[in-house]
Amino acid sequence: MKKGSKEDYLFLDKYEKDFASKTAERIIKFMSNLTETLEGYQVSRLEHSLQSATRAERDGANEEMIVATLLHDIGDSLAPFNHSQLSASILRPYVSEKVYWIMLHHGLFQEYY
Fold it and tell me: What is the pTM of this model?
């Protein structure tokens, strides 16, 4: 990194921006693989996510909240003990502080309720 020139970093920046622009595509691809269910659950993570987002939409939630609801468990398979934090971290650059906070703490809500 110390020996990188301005041109080197401008070159890399182009590829980083291109990679970042495809985040939604990667998330959708990842979500499509959430078809297995955890022991004891009657629906897969994908079905649960779709059901949750559908309920949010029917309840009149705005688009930001519907998307957050759809993705609220995206971190489950990689971080079962802190999936709320992982999901919130993924969405943080794209959502309001309120939605980020809800995502960050949704694991606590499910334990409480």
Answer: 0.81
